[in-house]
What does this fold into?
Amino acid sequence: MTRSTSAASARRPHWRRDLVELAALFTAVAVADAAANLVAHGPSGPVMLCVAATALLATAGFHVWWSRRHGHAPPSADTGATAPSPAAAPRAAAQETALWRMRTTVQDTPGSLASLCTALAGQGVDILSLQTHPLSAGTVDEFLLRAPGTLAPAELTRTVAGAGGAHTWLERADTHDLVDVPTRMLGLATRTALDSAELPLALRQLLGRCTIHSVPARSLPGRPAAEQVPAEGVLEDHIMRFRAPSGGSLTVERPQLPFTPTEFARVRALVELDTRLGHRVPPRRDVLTLPEGNALTIRRADPADRAAAVEMHDRCSAATLGLRYHGPVKDADSYLGHLLSPRFGRTLAVESASGRLVALGHLLWDGDETEVALLVEDGWQRRGIGAELLRRLMAMASDAGCESVYAITQASNTGMVAAMRGLGLPLDYQIEEGTLVITSRPKGVPALRDAHASTPAQDGPAGR
It folds into this structure.
């Protein structure tokens, strides 16, 4: 009904309704007058009054009884509400759950995502977050799921496949994945802005399992030269290439899962931020006191220390340089530009009280692995400097989430072997043609984090 029709109806005269109400009023007055005359002048008036009062009381009592009986009755089955069992809530709360990161490709048609969500709900899976990546061949949906602990990964994958998902990728997640994507990107950008060496670590946290190769503009002996990459970068399914801030190239590979244009845009934003800010190293310095009382300074090194590192090379013996670089001593200086660059890892420098460089410790991002290496000047060996540097570097690796760290040396380098054993971690040894590779797994070891924060040197085996 429109507003104009309602207004017209309100203006019509209602004389018929008024006439009916007036007739009802006259009838009620006539009936009341007849009842009053009957009670007042009839022979049984008092008896009729008592009977009427009793009937009214009986009616009121019956109404109260009926209301109490049906007002508190449990809801019927038609309402769908059931009273929960007292033991059901504790059982539901005690059920173990697991967090999963999942990607799957669905058809870009209405209802495809709804079918997938319905299938997950049928398995008791809770969808905590969802991101969609539209592609030409479909839509890649990325989920963060909380699933029952009893649900096997294979069963979860079959459920997704039955609902139309294809090329499904699944891995365990942790509480850090509960952070929403904008907040995570801001945190990674902050880490990258504070330290040049954080860019590879930020990319690993953003993309998950991936391999990152940084190739300098000038090729090192035995290493390939950097390829020319367009300024906007290159995306090729499982490979992304960018122009590194130092003029070289940065390649990111992930064989198990192709990259999406959204991921490419995020990585490019971090690389551009790193390029614009230029070289930066946190200005932290720690004082290291040796057992004999010498006070040394440990700090982060950068390319500005190259001249001092070359002078330290000149003071080192050929045997010390050979144990460190595993090749001709004359090529040792050519590695310093790569080793001191924060683009390829982190380097700790040890200075004497006079400001002279006496030791270097390197933590290098080697693809999806991490290498640790030490060089201590001959006159400062066997004093615990190498062992302290190794502890701090392994603490950095643990904080960065590195799963394994390896050191390449020779079996005759007893100082390095003793320093690795002094960490108190499980070690794997592998010997190939006289070269010893020692691998350790530092992730999640609190003792190493404490060692990273401590300043005094520890008594124990010395490392080179």
Remarks:
- DSSP finds 15 helices and 16 strands in the chain.
- The chain has three domains: 97-178, 181-277, 285-453.
